[in-house]
Amino acid sequence: MVASKSSTANRADAVTASQAESKKASTSLLVWTLRLGFLVALLAVWHYAVQWGYVPEFYISTPTKTALFLWKYIAGGEIFVDASYTIYETLMGFSIGSVAGIVSGLLLARFTTADRVLSPFLSGFNALPRVALAPLFILWFGIGTESKIVLAFSLVFFITLVNTNAGARATDSDIMMMARAMGATSRQTYLKVVLPYAIPSIFAGLRLAAVYALLGAVVGEMLAAQHGWGRQITYYSQTFEVAGVFGLLVVLATFSIGLNYLMVLAEQRLLRWKQ
Amino acid sequence: MDGNSAKAIPYESADSSGVKSPSAVSRKPSGDIAISVQNVFQIFKGHEGKPFTAVEDVSIDVPAGQFLAIVGPSGCGKTTVLNMMAGLVAPSKGQVYLNNEEVKGPSRSMGYMFARDALLPWRTARDNVEFGLELRGVPADARRARSQKLLKLVGLSKFENAYPSQLSQGMRQRVALARTMAIEPDIFLLDEPFAALDAQTKLQLESEFELLWQDTHKTAVLVTHDLDEAVALADRILVFGANPGRIILDRMTNLPRPRNVESIRYMPEFQVVAREIWELLRSK
Ligand SMILES: Nc1ncnc2c1ncn2[C@@H]1O[C@H](COP(=O)(O)OP(=O)(O)OP(=O)(O)O)[C@@H](O)[C@H]1O
Ligand SMILES: [Mg+2]
């Protein structure tokens, strides 16, 4: 009697679950269709705005010309030369900056005196719009990749430092008390409680930092460089080739989304406990 | 446990002024006293800036193996006294001894548990149970053996790989209980460990704890708002009064052991003790 009841209940659960699943699948199909429709509408507005003479082609080019540019840019292999510069600068700035930022954030959370001494300076640097330092970095490090890496680093470093530090200080007070009552040494508390507790916040910082690393590299290239996506954007704007500018923006957005997606994947793997 | 452990405690003296109380005359407790709280004061910085006396001249001796319950109105200093026993908070005045050693900080022979489970969300149930063992450097296979045994005792074998977010409140509290038992403390300090649970789960966990405790007869101090829980589990009951926090009753229950936490509530002796304390609390 009880068994049969529970098996009915299970079956009922299974039915609703599969219904819910198919409902979810159909919703996402609908959503995807609508998204596609929205994209097509956007491109159509763009196309006809030029075609019917509302906006001069000189300002916004056309979808076809942009697609054509992208095709040539990719097929001609030019994209890979630029990519190798921009991606290199982004990844270097990101990795060095985030390692340095995380380590400093953790050290400052551990050594409170150092934190108290340094915190006004750090807030000062952090408040400074560091993109404004780009001309200086180019003066100091030249027009090669170094100046862009330094710019990306300066952005990434502070973002990860601030996030790591905040995460390492936010440990739940009940959990801290439990660890203390359990007889954890301060080293054990740090390694087994504070550090894991900070990881979600560190990841939030990393995701933001990845986008900013790309920003640093591109802005640096726009100011002075011989290669890279940023450099090409400047070049095409100065030569009034708007299709080229738009094409590069598409490339940048795609890369940025890909980068963010990788961060999300890594986060999901590491934070499986955080449903 | 010889029933006369309620020794003369000068708690009434605090009523005069408390300032010139004899807290300087501290003595090392004798052999079989597991916890000795001697003329302890706790003075906090109040919210209006003036000092606030949360605990005034409290002295308690808990013989080894005794199960002591502390009850009293909210804010009367129960948690504060427990935290001073645990070495989590230093007394403003007076001394606390655990196993004849003055408490200077948390001791590894004590197991502390409170109403919030404080599980580590990134650890599975089993890894949470093993937390204290890990801190003590117990090798992995021994840890595993003990955590499995304890999870079985609290009825969570099937959930050893579940994360806290996947467990109900009662299950999480059981994991916390298993974590406290895992380190096999000499002294249990429990601050409303079952308060966050529904009546049924609460009764179940109380019974589980009673069973685990009956095997070992470790010294235990239980702070609770639940009078029935206090009488059902403890050998001796302290009633605290508020403003300032102090002891207003110290009573042995003399209920039989081993006992069944559920059915003991229907014994006439139980009712007598519970009513006496209830009336005292209500008259305050
Ligand atoms: N860190 C603190 N700073 C200032 N005042 C405090 C602090 N901790 C506790 N108090 C005060 O001390 C008094 C006793 O607090 P305590 O937590 O010991 O009460 P309690 O008996 O455990 O109450 P409850 O039953 O509600 O848990 C309260 O009035 C509280 O406001
Ligand atoms: Mg309390």
TrEMBL record, chain A:
The chain crosses the membrane at residues 29-49, 91-109, 121-143, 149-168, 189-215, 245-266. Residues 83-261 form the ABC transmembrane type-1 domain. It comes from the Bacteria. InterPro entries: MetI-like, MetI-like_sf. It is found in: Cell membrane. The keyword Transport applies. GO terms for cellular component: plasma membrane. Its main location: membrane. CDD domains: TM_PBP2. GO terms for biological process: transmembrane transport. It is a multi-pass membrane protein. Keywords: Cell membrane, Membrane, Transmembrane, Transmembrane helix, Transport. Belongs to the binding-protein-dependent transport system permease family. This is ABC transporter permease. It comes from Microvirga alba.
TrEMBL record, chain B:
Residues 14-24 have a biased composition (Polar residues). PROSITE patterns: ABC_TRANSPORTER_1, ABC_TRANSPORTER_2. Pfam families: ABC_tran. The keyword Transport applies. Coiled coil: none annotated. The keyword Transport applies. GO terms for molecular function: ATP binding; ATP hydrolysis activity. PANTHER family: ALIPHATIC SULFONATES IMPORT ATP-BINDING PROTEIN SSUB (PTHR42788:SF13), TAURINE IMPORT ATP-BINDING PROTEIN-RELATED (PTHR42788). Belongs to the ABC transporter superfamily. This is ABC transporter ATP-binding protein.
